[in-house]
Amino acid sequence: MQKTAICACILFVAQHVALAQTAADAGIQKPVVPAAVAARQQSFIPMTQAQRLRYYFNSTFSLGTVAVAAAGAGTAQLKNVPKEWGQGAEGYGRRIGDLYGQHIIVQTLMYGSSSVLHEDNRYFRSGESGLWPRLKYAAKSAFMTRRDDGSTRFAYTRIGSFAAGAFISRSWQPRSITSAGDGAVNFGSFVAVQIGFNVVREFFPKIIHDP
Predict the structure, then answer these.
(1) Contact (CB, 8 A) for 69 and 99
(2) What is the pLDDT of residues 134-155, one digit of tens each?
């Protein structure tokens, strides 16, 4: 129940961010852009297609992504989830393959769709001061993305890829975790991990930075 509630809250926030962005794009609501944000937009340089492809490979097949999958598999191993995969080396290997397979699906879908829709899903530091404003910016950035002109909008390609990866992976997983609720929990985990990485990127850029 707790995980379902968290996922519902994330979906609620995502929906309202999307609605606000749609209204802004339609001219219903045009918020005043702060000077600092305007300056960031003006200094923004969009990726070339070659840079976008390199970013895809670096963020999909790096040692860091394998390490994250290994850590997540270790946690699932301790919880024995899913139970059908059991324990031991075989169960651990299946869990790593599952998590890394999901990661590849998400990143590949995000690469293709962001190329078409001209979205830049890298993380850009806020440039703001103070703990709370920077935390809010990091959390919001999970749902927002840059466009080639430097403006920001709802991250259709990131959130859509998270949802697709969460539900596509149900096709190879055992029956105990293939319900719609399990997919929603998986989607919520993707978003929560993205927010966590954003916080680290914001406050400790030397530890995690976009390639």
Answers:
(1) yes
(2) 999 999 999 999 998 889 999 9
